[in-house]
Amino acid sequence: LFPLMDGLQYGRFLLGSEEAGANPLVVIVALLYSLYRSIPFSGFAAFFALNFLSGNPSLNRLVRFNMQQAIFLDIALFFPSLVIGLGTLIGGNIPGLNVPAVAGEVFSDVIFGTLLLTLAYCVVSSLFGKEPSSIPFVSDSVKDRMPTIDMFDDNGQFVPRESREDKDKDDKDKK
User: Fold this and answer.
1) What are phi and psi for residue 105, nearest 5 degrees?
2) Could you tell me which residues are beta bridge partners of residue 158?
3) Residue stretches of the chain with pLDDT short of 70
4) Which long-range contacts (CB under 8 A, 24 or more apart) does 113-122 make?
């Protein structure tokens, strides 16, 4: 829900239409969004809660992976906002450059559609018990942050990646 709540700004053209108001799912999402935004610093609190809980090894790895991936997806939503802001800034300062309003609507709709497809992929993968690890850039970053058993030595001490890679290389050389 975390990336969905922050990504609803891109769906304003799709969800704001008169036909969308008749959809009960849209009404439920609108209620959740109203509740989410009515709590001061709710996004900030959700970010830290998910970050803290995703580091708890007593939770299921799939749950922790999804928490961490939600954080990374939410961070990734910053970049379309940056593009829109820069486009508005640059476009407003160049005389004769007139970008039609429909271009902004299409851009927002594509971002929102991509977000919905990504979230649907994550939900379906998780329901089947599989790690949703095929999201470009995001999944690889999450995998790098997720603690695994091979990150620790026999004494339970954390081993940095470089040391693990050196050890793996030495093991391959011995074979």
Assistant:
1) -65, -45
2) 152
3) 17-23, 91-93, 95-97, 99, 148-149, 164-175
4) 115/3, 115/4, 115/7, 115/10, 115/73, 115/77, 116/11, 118/73, 119/3, 119/4, 119/73, 122/66, 122/69
Of 81, 62, 66, nearest to 1 by C-alpha is 66
How far apart are the C-alpha atoms of 169 and 114, rounded to whole Å?
A: 39
Distance (Å, rounded) from C-alpha 90 to C-alpha 97? 9
CA distance 30 to 102: 24
Q: What is the reported pTM?
A: 0.73
Query: How many Å apart are CA 20 and CA 50, to the nearest integer?
Result: 30
